[in-house]
């Protein structure tokens, strides 16, 4: 949840210039699977699209104010972008401009923040603002 809070701060800061999207993929630590003790939610493994929709609604309650869509049950977005189970991307005009590492260890909101600050500076010719 700390990562979601950090992501929320990025969304708040850059939402005028950047469109943010969360793609909800398969649950990394389902309550009926590989459980983690630090999860604030009890979400079972998705067995249907309806299960995934229900789980996404739980996520949306704590998610930043940005669009939230669902991956297919075949997890095609997760496979195409190598999310397994969380990853940050910046895509501009169909080109991947930034690709963060795979979660959980490679998922670094601070790295994305640095990229956005540099992009903002190049785009607007100003010094980056700090969160």
From TrEMBL:
The keyword Oxidoreductase applies. Responsible for the deiodination of T4 (3,5,3',5'-tetraiodothyronine). The keyword Oxidoreductase applies. This is Iodothyronine deiodinase. One of its GO terms (biological process) is thyroid hormone metabolic process. Keywords: Oxidoreductase, Selenocysteine, Thyroid hormones biosynthesis. InterPro entries: Iodothyronine_deiodinase. GO terms for molecular function: thyroxine 5'-deiodinase activity. It comes from Spermophilus dauricus (Daurian ground squirrel). It comes from the Eukaryota. Belongs to the iodothyronine deiodinase family.
């Amino acid at each position: 949840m700390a990562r979601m809070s950090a992501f929320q701060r990025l969304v708040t800061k850059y939402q005028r210039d950047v469109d943010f999207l969360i793609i909800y993929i398969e649950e990394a630590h389902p309550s009926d699977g590989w459980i983690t003790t630090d999860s604030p939610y009890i979400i079972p493994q998705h067995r249907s699209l309806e299960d995934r929709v229900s789980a996404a609604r739980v996520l949306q309650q704590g998610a930043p104010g940005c669009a939230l869509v669902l991956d297919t049950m075949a997890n095609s977005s997760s496979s195409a972008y190598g999310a397994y189970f969380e990853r940050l991307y910046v895509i501009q005009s169909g080109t991947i401009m930034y690709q963060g590492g795979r979660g959980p260890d490679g998922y670094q909101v601070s790295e994305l923040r640095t990229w956005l600050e540099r992009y903002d500076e190049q785009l607007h010719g100003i010094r980056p603002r700090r969160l």
